[in-house]
Write a structure and sequence with these properties.
Layout (H helix, E strand, L loop, with lengths): L29 H8 L3 H20 L1 H6 L14 H19 L8 H19 L16 H4 L12 H12 L1 H17 L6 H15 L7 H13 L2 H5 L7 H31 L12 H13 L5 H25 L5 H10 L8 H16 L14 E5 L2 H4 L5 E4 L9 E5 L12 H8 L4 H10 L5 H5 L3 H17 L6 H25 L6 H12 L3 H13 L6 H20 L5 H9 L6 H18 L1
Parallel strand pairs: 1-3
Antiparallel strand pairs: 2-3
Helix pairs in contact: 2-4, 2-5, 4-5, 5-13, 7-12, 8-12, 9-12, 10-12, 14-22, 15-23, 16-18, 18-21, 18-22, 21-22, 21-25, 22-23, 23-24, 25-27
């Protein structure tokens, strides 16, 4: 899973060449297209619209702007109020109108793809408003009780003024919670409720934060870490009047942020929890079915019937189950869940320490790195580092995820691994996990995108979930072809992860539609088919509950990329070159799946056939 700030996918393309790289003979000539833009009014108009969209994103998401190096909004936070949301949506509507007025017949292929990406982002953002998620979503993964303590991680201190804008931003945290509570309260009045399990998890998180003194809070610790990285020293960080910066950070946390957290806790316990719903599906909320359909479109890039997706999931589960059982029965096993849980307890599969877990994952990333040159013509220059998820959020976090490098180069990309209870993270699943989250999965695709200066900024940095996650799941299977799984246990781990993504199609649609699955039903189904421990399986199911539709993106994206690859192989025969196909898939960033097929791969196939 790729995370960015509040879980926004980031993407793009091209990048640094590896040794011996040769250009595809039918690759889009971006340089020539850029020259053509200079003479075309429609090209100039499109470029201005892309910049306008980026400006809207920066002003709406100020902490992300800071992370991107835009320091204009350093003292403010995202405004969760309905008034701010309505103003932003009006700006998006006006932008979409202007995008639709562009004459695409006068644009190059790359520019037409840009129009597709921009239109998709605007249309799905506006369509998603039917969900009114800001008025009911109480989220243990990306809610303010998790995101606010991490503000300092992206607030890089390059000069003393940056340290004090961080303080100003911290002073806005109580305002955020006040507005967040007001929106949730308004939602309750109109019948929008959060699932009970999410509320319970968030209550536990807030209590755990408040149980620590302010000096042990992540607000303080992460701010101090940034100060240490700056190497400015306490004297340089002091205010003109001599106020010690560290003391001000501590007092702001203790006297302003902690009271806001207590107020949030009181609201959750006294108002949100009693009104929360036992039904886990978003269909229980007003316009719930329309909301789910909008989420399906946004995350998969396709307007598909949830019932069709449910049936697809059931079929994929049976297909993968047959492959898994062949390996399990060869080792004397009889069913997936008991075999995998027994395998996870074998002494050689158990990690005893956080350090051992991190070290092993580092080895796996190095193993994959050694194979990349045979699979891709273009490779990124951005490094990726294995890192443990912070302890204050590890208990509720997924098993691992990827986070891109800082745009200013101050830190590399991170492959975050959850080291909470390391004995529950079996060795046999670590290879497939590393290949999904790092290379050849998220890191390779996202770093190539972010390094590609030929694309508009928004196209480099944001993209379509099914492309991002579908590529990473495709990378798991590609790693099998590349010989990166060194044992039957690791191969079984890879199959168990593919099964996990197929199960998601079943349980996500099962919970969020009229099928009406309960949390317990979904949890049992996941454990039965993947052998996951209950704590990890529960984290997964609760993620699907609070993020309706997001989990569908993985398998649907993977299946589309695999289908396009098969189509290219059949059409090109001996002329099919795998690295060229991969480079073409990644050439334009993380585009909607319909665009990948119609504007990129199918034209590429036809051009190759002519050659």
């Amino acid at each position: 899973m790729k995370r960015w700030v509040l879980c926004c996918g980031v993407l793009a393309l091209c990048g640094c060449a590896s040794g011996g790289e040769t250009a595809s003979p039918v690759a889009v000539d971006v340089t020539q297209e850029k020259k053509a833009q200079g003479q075309n009014p429609q090209s100039k108009a499109l470029e201005a619209l892309g910049e306008r969209y980026w400006e809207l994103l920066m002003s709406r998401h100020p902490t992300w702007a800071t992370f991107q190096g835009d320091r204009r909004f350093d003292t403010v936070l995202y405004d969760p109020s309905s008034q701010a949301r309505e103003a932003h949506n009006k700006a998006l509507e006006a932008l979409l109108k202007d995008v639709r007025a562009i004459d695409t017949g006068q644009l190059t292929l790359s520019e037409q793809i840009t129009v597709d990406v921009l239109s998709f982002k605007l249309e799905t953002s506006l369509a998603g408003e039917v969900c009114q998620g800001h008025r009911w979503q109480i989220d243990q993964l990306g809610g303010p009780q998790v995101s606010m303590p991490r503000i300092a991680q992206g607030h890089f201190i390059k000069e003393p003024a940056h340290a004090w804008t961080l303080v100003e931003r911290y002073k806005q945290v109580p305002v955020y919670f006040e507005r967040h509570i007001a929106e949730l309260r308004s939602g309750l009045a109109d019948g929008y409720t959060a699932p009970r399990i999410g509320v319970e998890r968030v209550i536990a998180q807030v209590k755990a934060q408040l149980a620590k003194p302010a000096n042990e809070s992540p607000y303080v610790k992460l701010a101090y870490e940034q100060a240490e990285r700056s190497k400015l020293g306490d004297e340089a960080l002091a205010s003109p009047g001599g106020e010690p910066w560290r003391q001000v950070v501590l007092e702001t946390t203790d006297k302003e942020i902690y009271p806001a957290l207590r107020a949030y806790l009181a609201f959750l316990e006294k108002e949100a929890l009693p009104a929360s719903r036992q039904e886990v599906g978003v269909s229980a909320n007003p316009n719930g079915q329309a909301c789910y359909e909008a989420r399906v479109w946004s995350t998969t890039g396709l307007k598909r019937d949830p019932a069709e997706i449910h049936a697809l999931g059931l079929a994929e589960v049976e297909r993968i189950k047959a492959q898994m059982m062949a390996l399990i029965e060869a080792d004397g096993g009889k069913a997936i869940e008991p075999y995998l849980q027994g395998l996870a307890k074998r002494p050689e599969q158990v990690f005893k320490t956080e350090e051992e877990l991190i070290s092993y994952n580092t080895t796996l990333v190095e193993r994959a790195d050694a194979k990349l040159a045979s699979l891709f013509g273009r490779l990124p220059s951005t490094p990726v580092e294995v890192k443990a998820i912070e302890s204050f959020r590890a208990a509720d976090a997924p098993i691992a995820y990827y986070e891109g490098a800082a745009p200013d180069g101050s830190h590399p990309a991170y492959y975050y691994v959850n080291t909470f209870e390391p004995e529950t993270r079996p060795r046999y699943i670590m290879a497939v996990l590393a290949y999904h989250e790092a290379v050849p999965g998220h890191h390779l695709q996202i770093a190539l995108a972010e390094e590609n200066q030929a694309l508009p900024r928004f196209q480099r940095e944001i993209g379509q979930t099914a492309f991002v996650e579908g590529w990473a799941l495709y990378a798991e299977a590609l790693s099998w072809e590349a010989g990166l799984y060194h044992s039957n246990e690791e191969k079984l781990g890879a199959l168990s992860f593919e099964m996990w993504r197929a199960v998601r199609l079943v349980v996500d649609t099962g919970m969020h539609t009229s099928v009406g699955w309960s949390r317990e039903q979904a949890l049992r189904y996941l454990m039965e088919h993947t052998g996951k421990y209950e704590n990890e399986a529960a984290n997964e199911i609760d993620r699907y509950i609070v993020w309706p539709g997001q989990a569908l993106a993985y398998k649907i994206g993977q299946l589309e990329i695999m289908a396009l690859r098969q189509q290219a192989k059949e059409a090109l025969g001996d002329g099919f070159v795998l690295p060229d196909f991969h480079d073409e898939v990644l050439r334009h960033g993380a585009v909607p799946l319909a665009t990948l097929r119609a504007r990129i791969i199918e034209p590429w196939i036809e051009a190759r056939k002519e050659k």
